[in-house]
TrEMBL record:
GO terms for molecular function: transmembrane transporter activity. GO terms for cellular component: plasma membrane. It is a multi-pass membrane protein. Residues 19-390 form the Major facilitator superfamily (MFS) profile domain. The chain crosses the membrane at residues 14-36, 56-77, 84-104, 110-131, 143-162, 174-194, 215-237, 249-269, 281-299, 305-327, 339-361, 367-386. It is found in: Cell membrane. Coiled coil: none annotated. It holds the Pfam family MFS_1. The keyword Lipoprotein does not apply. The lineage of its organism: Bacteria, Pseudomonadati, Pseudomonadota, Alphaproteobacteria, Hyphomicrobiales. This is MFS transporter.
Length: 395
């Protein structure tokens, strides 16, 4: 009997980590799909006869719908099995990519991006809660790091490969290339994810209850400032590298590859060293990424300097997700789906506002104004977080 039990648990453990890997691939595809316009901003703007600032709104529109979807998904899904909700979100991503690839005009592009936003909001709202059900509590940070390894993969290869292939074959071919991979991931979800019946019905009152907790509300605002700062800069990174650093397509691809590969370091470090209290780590993303933005403003004319700052930025970008989602899992463990909805809404709202404000600053003033806006948000975030202790639930 003991041998049978051990064998069963071992099989269950392997199956659970297979499901985590399936979610990691989905994360990679979501990140690649959401932020591919960053590496293709200039050719997409030319192809759709729009300004770069307007095309940047392709990211903000997906963020807008992601905010809405993340707020309603746990309520709208009701008692639906969470496995099938995740499968549906992945199917939405596939349809979105097809719409963007064939978009004859800006309106159809926005429609495809809106559908992607629904997928992003729905998936992320449930992702951490699902991870908490797939693995033991002690393994949650490791599983989160593994899942966000998909973010590192996308950051490492999606932008530079997208930029390179877009230069060779046109930006539409990049979105076409993603569709068969999403189809494979859809099948993997069906095979790897276990049945995940809804444990309890979430509603608006649960979310409001979380917002009434001062430590959670403070952390939510701090996370918004961290992501808002990051994506005010990142959304318009290509124009900066072209105008200030003087990067051609090849150099641009190399710099984006450096940024993305550094993400593996951030994912590895966060999974290996994140244990115990997360408080001391909460301010690191805004502090270091804001410092990198300042460095680019001062020394961004040098390709070497730009590469160094982007490497540090890329490592903290992936670590930021693991740090803040671990904070959520530890400080809202009694309502993980509601907390996930709020966190995703906050993050996507920040990405949306970052893209909008950054685009307005770019079109109205200059790329330097866009990066200064990012720096200001980072400084406010660091000040709010402090030593991180005020963001922890009372013991």
């Amino acid at each position: 009997m003991a041998v049978t039990a051990v064998s069963h648990e071992g099989t269950k453990s392997i199956a659970s980590w297979g499901a985590v890997l399936s979610m990691a691939l989905c994360v990679a595809l979501l990140i690649a799909s959401e932020f591919m316009p960053v590496s293709l901003l200039t050719p997409m703007a030319e192809g759709l006869r729009a300004t770069e600032g307007q095309t940047g709104q392709a990211i903000s529109i997906s963020g807008l719908f992601a905010v809405a979807a993340s707020m309603i998904i746990t309520t709208a899904a009701g008692t639906l099995n969470r496995k099938w909700v995740l499968v549906a979100m992945t199917a939405f991503m596939l349809v979105s990519l097809l719409l963007v690839a064939v978009a004859p005009n800006f309106a159809v592009l926005m429609l495809g991006r809106a559908l992607l936003g629904i997928c992003i909001g729905g998936f992320w709202a449930l992702a951490t809660a699902v991870i908490m059900r797939l693995v033991p509590e002690s393994e949650v940070p490791r599983a989160l790091a593994l899942m966000y390894g998909g973010q590192a993969i996308a950051a490492a290869f999606a932008a530079p490969v997208g930029s390179y292939l877009g230069g060779l074959f046109g930006w539409r071919s990049v979105f076409w290339a993603l569709t068969p991979i999403v189809a494979v991931n859809l099948v993997w979800h069906l095979l790897a994810l276990p049945s995940l019946p809804a444990r309890q019905r979430q509603d608006v009152r649960t979310m409001l209850g979380l917002l009434k907790r001062p430590y959670f509300l403070r952390g939510l605002v701090a996370s918004m400032l961290s992501w808002g700062s990051a994506f005010t800069m990142f959304t318009y990174l290509r124009p900066f590298l072209e105008l200030v650093t003087g990067a051609d397509v090849t150099t641009l691809s190399i710099l984006l590859l450096v940024l993305g590969c550094a993400g593996f370091v951030g994912t590895w470090a966060s999974g290996r060293f994140l244990s115990g209290s997360v408080a001391p780590l909460l301010r690191l993303p805004a502090l270091l990424m804001g410092g990198c933005t300042l460095g680019l403003l001062l020394l961004g004319g040098s390709v070497v300097a730009a590469g160094v700052f982007l490497a540090v930025w890329g490592a903290m970008n992936t670590a930021m997700s693991v740090i803040w989602m671990t904070w959520m899992s530890q400080n809202a463990d009694d309502a993980p789906e509601a907390a996930g909805s709020l966190m995703v809404a906050a993050i996507q709202a920040s990405i949306l506002l970052g893209a909008v404000v950054g685009g307005l600053l770019l079109d109205g003033l200059s790329i330097f104004a866009t990066f200064m806006g990012s720096l200001i948000l980072a400084a406010i975030g660091v000040a709010l977080i402090g030593n991180g202790r005020r963001l922890l639930k009372p013991e």
